């Protein structure tokens, strides 16, 4: 049977998030295509043992050279296309959607089919200090991720951006083929101050001139004007 919804997942030393992802995301889709990008923790073993993982692509840690986001995205999309998935979902290992999304997903996709929508765009919430709060001041309240997109087959135009690139087909960018949906996607890797600093330092090292993000990366640890919003029970992840 042709899978309706295929999850695409690239991981690198994400073992601490994988059990939760496999439970909250992997169990809700028809198939999972995962790529382990040379992990040295238990990520690969967890993915191999997961019944929901239909296909696992790997990079040998001994042969890994740098961090190639565009290649990883293309490998995963191509593998998903080989499965003939109708829609792809790109929630990272450290991302969780609202629980209520899954009961609404069939209707969302049916509506997208009916209205010619190819990409669903979610509010991205950075969970901050407490698991039930996210940061909402300034640009933090404006973040989004277009994380569910239609399989366009060979017509898929890939984003070449080295960092912070998009998963969805680039011919949809800036068009009415992208639809904002009223669902939150929670990012867990900003929960702790140590993780926020590690993320800032990682991107400063690979993009020192902020070529791929004009705002730079210092803001990831700047708590000026900090405002937190509590996650209500009806929008929990």
TrEMBL record:
Output the superkingdom of the source species. Answer: Bacteria
Indicate whether Kinase appears among the record's keywords.
Answer: no
**Annotated InterPro entries:** Nucleotide-diphossugar_trans
GO terms assigned for molecular function? glycosyltransferase activity
Question: Keyword Glycosyltransferase: yes or no?
Answer: yes
Report the EC code(s) recorded for this entry: 2.4.-.-
Q: Which UniProt keywords apply?
A: Glycosyltransferase, Transferase
Q: What is this protein called?
A: Glycosyltransferase family A protein
């Amino acid at each position: 049977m042709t899978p309706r919804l295929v999850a695409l997942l690239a991981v690198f030393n994400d073992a601490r998030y994988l059990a939760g992802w496999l439970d909250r995301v992997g169990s809700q889709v028809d198939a999972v295509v995962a790529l382990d990008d040379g992990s040295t923790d238990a990520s690969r073993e967890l993915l191999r043992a997961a019944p929901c993982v239909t296909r696992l692509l790997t990079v040998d840690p001994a042969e890994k050279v740098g961090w190639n986001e565009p290649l990883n995205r293309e490998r995963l999309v191509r593998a998903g296309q080989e499965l003939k998935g109708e829609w792809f979902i790109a929630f990272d290992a450290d991302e969780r959607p609202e629980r209520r999304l899954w009961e609404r997903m069939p209707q969302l996709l049916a509506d997208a089919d009916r209205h010619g929508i190819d990409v669903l765009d979610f509010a991205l919430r950075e969970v901050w200090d407490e698991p039930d709060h996210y940061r909402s001041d300034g640009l933090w309240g404006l973040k989004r991720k277009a994380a569910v997109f239609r399989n366009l087959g060979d017509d898929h135009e890939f984003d070449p951006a080295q960092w912070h690139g998009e998963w969805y087909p680039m011919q949809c960018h800036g068009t009415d083929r992208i639809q904002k949906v009223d669902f939150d996607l929670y990012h867990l890797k900003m929960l702790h101050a140590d993780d926020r600093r590690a993320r800032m330092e990682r991107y400063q090292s690979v993009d020192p001139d902020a070529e791929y993000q004009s705002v730079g990366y210092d803001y990831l640890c700047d708590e000026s004007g900090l405002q937190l919003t509590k996650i209500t029970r009806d929008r929990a992840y």
